[in-house]
Amino acid sequence: MVATTVHLLRHGEVHNPEGLLYGRLPGYRLSERGQAMAELVARTLAGEEGAPRRDVVAVVASPLQRAQETAVPIARAFGVEITTDERIIEAENHFQGMTFGVGDGSLRHPEHWPHLRNPFRPSWGEAYTAQVERVLAAVDAARATALGHEVVLVSHQLPIWVTRLSLEGRRLWHDPRRRQCSLASLTSLRYDGDRLVGVGYSEPAAALLPGASPVPGA
C-alpha cells in the first residue's frame, strides 16, 4: 500500500489586541510572534531544526488571512504554490466579533443566552458533525493530490480538534480548555492506502508559545 501523511496545522498567533472572538472575520493577521511561529514550523518541516526533512509536495490553506500567512513560509520552503480550500475554514460562531464571558463580555446580555442551550451540538455555532464532514472531505482531496507523499493543510483549532476526536472514535462535545491543538501545532494523519493507521501530534513552535520557558541561550 502507499503511505501518505496529511498534516493539519493550526495557524500561528493572531494580532488581536481587543481580545475579540474573530471567527471568520476578515483582516485578522498574524502577530510578530505568529509570523515567527510559521517560520519555525517551515524550518522544522524542511529539516533545518534537527528533524529529518519532510516529503511535503503540497500546501493547502483556509481562506482566512491568518491561515494564508502561516502557509507562506512552508510553501516557500518546499517550492510549491498555496492552494486555498474553503472546507478547512474556521467554524461559524454566533459570538464572532464579540468578547466572550461574563462581566463586560457578551454573556452578560440575556439575548445571547439561548445560543448556549445545547453544548453538545453546539447551539452557538456550526455543528461539530458538519465541521468533521467538511474537513475530512478536504483531507481526502489533499491525500489524493499528495498520494505517497505529505501535504500540509493550514486550518483552525476547533475544526482540527473535532476531526481528530472523530477519527479516534471519541465524542465530539468537549471542554475547550482540554483541546490538544496549540498555536502552530501539527496533527498528523498517517494513511496506508485509504486506511488511517495513526494520528500524531507535535508542537514545532512550542518554544514560542505564550508562557513558554525561555530557550537557553536565546
UniProtKB/TrEMBL annotation:
One of its GO terms (cellular component) is cytoplasm. It comes from the Bacteria. One of its GO terms (molecular function) is phosphatase activity. It holds the Pfam family His_Phos_1. This is Broad specificity phosphatase PhoE.
